[in-house]
Specification:
about 140 residues, 6 helices, mainly alpha
Length: about 140
């Protein structure tokens, strides 16, 4: 049952990305083009997602334990350090160059565009490079 809900969640996420137009890198890049042909739709998609998630988390946390699992697994770190800032900057640079973030690129694989596959291969390469140069902390 846990895997079925994971599949359904992925389908809802992918449908939302597709319906909102966020699989189109030109639309995403237009959001970053503040001095040109700015398209604010990404801000509305992100804002809507934050509102729904905020409400959803409040409802889910009332349960005390997750539906599938022993306990909620939440990040414990709150430090804003060089790794966080550097990683955020690299993510933003990649997003600004490609017009994709990994969350939108995965459903965009369904478009059959080779650029999407190349982008995701580069993301996986970045994950592997990070493992080589900066092993995970305990």
């Amino acid at each position: 049952m846990k895997h079925l809900f994971a599949l359904l969640t992925g389908i809802v996420f992918g449908a939302g990305i597709a319906l909102s137009g966020m699989m189109d890198p030109a639309k995403v890049l237009a959001f970053f083009d503040i001095a040109g042909h700015w398209d604010p739709s990404l801000a509305f998609v992100m804002g809507g997602a934050v509102i729904v998630t905020f409400i959803g988390y409040r409802l889910v946390w009332r349960r005390g334990t997750p539906l599938f699992g022993g306990r909620f697994l939440l990040p414990q770190g709150t430090a804003i350090d060089a790794r966080l800032v550097g990683g955020s900057a690299l993510f933003g640079i990649g997003w600004g160059i490609a017009g994709f973030c990994p969350g939108a690129a995965i459903p965009a694989l369904g478009t059959g565009r080779w650029e999407v596959a190349l982008f995701l291969a580069a993301v996986i390469g970045g994950f592997q490079l990070r493992r080589l140069i900066a092993p995970a902390r305990g």
